Amino acid sequence: MDENSKPKSVLDSLGEEIVRIITPVSICMLLVVILVTVLNNDTDSSNPSFTSIATVAYNESSSDSNWDKLKGALLNALVFVVVVTVVTFLLVLLFYFRCTEFLKYYMGFSSFLVLGFTGGEIAIFLIGKFRVPIDCVSFGLILFNFTVVGVLAVFMSKMAIVVTQGYLVVIAVLVAYWFTMLPEWTTWVLLVAMALHDLAAVLLPGGPLRLLVELAMSRDEDIPALVYEARPVIDRESVPRGGFVQRRVWRERRENEFGSDENLDSSSNLNSNVNSISESRSVLERRPLYGSDENERNAVDMEDGQVSREDSELAAPLIQHRINVRMNLQEGSNDDFALEGIGLGSSGAIKLGLGDFIFYSVLVARAAMYDFMTVYACYLAIIAGLGITLMLLAFYQKALPALPVSVLLDHWLRDPITQRLRGFVSVTEILPAVLVLVLSDVSPCRQKSQDLHSSKGLTLKTTDTITRVKTWNDFYLNDEAFMRQMLSDSHGLNFCHEKSINNEKGVNQNDLTGQN
Amino acid sequence: MTVAAGIGYALVALGPSLSLFLALISKKPFLILTLLSSTLVWLMSLIVMSALSRAFLPLKTTVWWPYTILILTSVGFQEALRILFWKVYKKLEDILDAFADRVSKPRLFMTDKMQIALAGGLGHGVAHAVFFCLGLLTPAFGPATYYVEKCPKMPFFLVSAIIALAFATIHTFSMVIAFSGYEEGNKVDQCFAPVVHFIAGMLTLINLAFGGCTISIPLLYCVAIVTLVHCGKMAWRRLIENRSREGNLSNSQ
């Protein structure tokens, strides 16, 4: 055919990263919607015997008035947020005392609980619904194996990235399904409360998450977190400028102390955080690659040596990619960086926190309990918001080199910048939320009463806006920090660290499933 | 009636779109994004229109001409949106060409542009099919089926699936025709999409009469086939012209 002889068009690989994030989000939402429709056909209202930490204050029953439900839901949400805050402070404390190992193992344990107990519970529901003939022993064996492989894949060792990604999606599906089992008003108020809590915990000076991030940044460590990382796009055809190739080596996280790293070249301090466990709500991060010109080659070699040396629990990285990028900032690489940063160029992996997966899936699954048109519209709105967020981030990454003053100044300047940009973002992010709001009012096939829908639409709007703003905010903060680093070119390769937003997903699984 | 029938109806409405997606669009991520955004745009246009016409609905008339006005306004709005889509696409084309120049890759080929138009049209078609057919299919997964009085020969779900398939085809390919019409300045192609859309909308009014679906559905498929053929001829002509032009260029070098 003619096409094989044609040079590859720019359309072939454009936007690949975005699609690589949208695909797992869509799969997660689809699975949760399927689970909800299959398992919730008989009872539309909440299960009255469902107790958990989120319903400890008030258990909703359909005979209460709306005001009672709202009060009860607020009470529930308050209790939940208080527990989450306490646990987050505990996490900050542990991190402060450098108990990172303990944290890591604890995260592994909690994901074991999620996969084992919540997964087992849902599997039992499915077995009951479809009358699958299986006995306890086989079921237990299969479940145990599944769980252990999941824990290993996500936290402990290296596996094919598809397996890791698959298990992360499964964890998100299970947690999201668990959240949909809560009573309805509690769910909505809880989502809003969690979004507000995120904002407060990150932006307030005494907020636990801010403390955590600052600790991590000052120590140059990673925060343990549950993060979905899409495979980076490799552009094999880009021509290196200046005669040699700037490389970015994307490696697994190393567990050694950072004291021993100072003698190494700064480029070897790259952390790719594939293995990092995260409290990961609303963390959206790009990992551009870069190295300094002169010692670039050395960096790579040293890094190779580095990798082979410290192998303790992280095996030689299976996911070591070499990605070509042009990085000469002095030569007006603003444009190059722009095209890198449009988000449509081929560069590094995009990471999305698992909390975002869960949040979107809970939204969509709740919509699935009413009507499929609402699901469809919610899905489109969420994907639109996500896509716009990614594009805007990439776009404003372009603007960053053009703002040298703010970048070179102290990092406290990021607040006024984010203030200004937040206004811009919230306009585009409100759009999908408004969409959902309007559609919930306009959809022709609803069966529920009017007030339910209007309240749902309203909370959806608030939640979406706040969370989107937050997502973008965090991302901007991260990128600004790394941009500063890069321009100063001294420790150019210390990545900004992820913001760990909440840990409650990991820790509360323990509480919640323990109480179930 | 049963899950098998439900999935069957869904595939009747969306099968060709799915195969188009898998064959053409899934390989190029940009086209996936185009599809999603055009689906969203179509959905938003529906929302806006329904908000606007909320004042007049439901139309409790037994005569049929108020529906004509409704269809006229809806089609007009969607076609205006298509022109807006075209303008956005022009800007996007400039950005993409600039990007291609920077990464020293060739600029957008004509086939690329047609593929983007196809993805946009497919987004519209899929949105239409999902809204007007899949949204109604939830009862079809149960144990029974449903017949409408005015069309007693086929189950309601099957009729809606067939109509949705016709409309998806019309939307998909009229977008390609419209975009190439705007690009070349061809008046026939530019007017083709709105006219065809309007005719298709009017044809569905025949369903209001008893037994109307036996007339309107074949006519609807005639319109869809006309769209397909016209699009095919236009694409073929442009490809041949392009290839001869490239041949001339390479000969003269």
From TrEMBL, chain A:
The chain crosses the membrane at residues 21-39, 73-97, 109-131, 137-155, 160-179, 185-204, 376-396, 421-439. Keywords: Endoplasmic reticulum, Golgi apparatus, Hydrolase, Membrane, Notch signaling pathway, Protease, Transmembrane, Transmembrane helix. GO terms for molecular function: aspartic endopeptidase activity, intramembrane cleaving. It is found in: Endoplasmic reticulum membrane; Golgi apparatus membrane. Its EC number is 3.4.23.-. Residues 258-279 are annotated as: Disordered. Residues 265-279 have a biased composition (Low complexity). GO terms for biological process: membrane protein ectodomain proteolysis; Notch signaling pathway; protein processing. It is a multi-pass membrane protein. The PAL motif is required for normal active site conformation. Probable subunit of the gamma-secretase complex, an endoprotease complex that catalyzes the intramembrane cleavage of integral membrane proteins such as Notch receptors. This is Presenilin. It comes from Capsicum baccatum (Peruvian pepper).
TrEMBL record, chain B:
GO terms for cellular component: membrane. InterPro entries: Aph-1. GO terms for biological process: Notch signaling pathway; protein processing. Keywords: Membrane, Notch signaling pathway, Transmembrane, Transmembrane helix. Pfam families: Aph-1. It is found in: Membrane. The chain crosses the membrane at residues 6-25, 30-52, 64-85, 116-137, 157-179, 191-210, 216-236. It is a multi-pass membrane protein. Belongs to the APH-1 family. This is Gamma-secretase subunit APH1-like.
